[in-house]
Design a protein that fits this description.
- The protein has about 100 residues and is mainly alpha-helical.
- It has one domain (about 1-100).
- About 35% of the residues lie in helices and about 10% in strands.
- It is built from five helices and two strands.
- The chain has helices at about 1-10, 25-30, 40-45, 65-80, 100; strands spanning about 55-60, 85.
- The chain has a two-stranded parallel ribbon with strand order 1-2.
- The protein is globular, with a radius of gyration of 17 Å.
């Protein structure tokens, strides 16, 4: 939620000076989040990566990538040594690139 609010609002080029002074999240909303189902050890076990930080990146299809080029970017990142890539959290399924096409 914070990323959506801050990332989208602070990313507007028309805004030259903006400061977030307060953010209140309703307790009822917070209670809907139970936390992660497991910790870093499970992630390390899945990736078989130990003894170093995990390295990843976010690929931004909303900057104009087609589904094919998005897949190529993911491939190149992983082939180049990244441990993971993640989808841009605000993209979901948009007209210029449907989620199913990226998947």
């Amino acid at each position: 939620m914070f990323t959506s609010i801050v990332g989208n609002v602070f990313g507007f080029k028309a805004l030259r000076a903006l400061r977030l002074e307060d953010l209140r999240i309703p307790p009822a909303y917070i209670k809907t989040f139970q936390g992660p189902p497991h910790g870093i050890q499970v992630e390390r076990d899945k990736l078989n990566k130990y003894g170093r930080p995990l390295l990843g990146c976010t690929i931004k299809p909303k900057l104009g990538l087609s589904a094919k080029n998005y897949g190529r970017a993911v491939y190149e990142c992983l082939r180049g040594g990244l441990d993971f890539t993640k989808d841009d959290e605000n993209v979901n399924s948009q007209p210029f690139m449907r989620w199913r096409d990226r998947f």
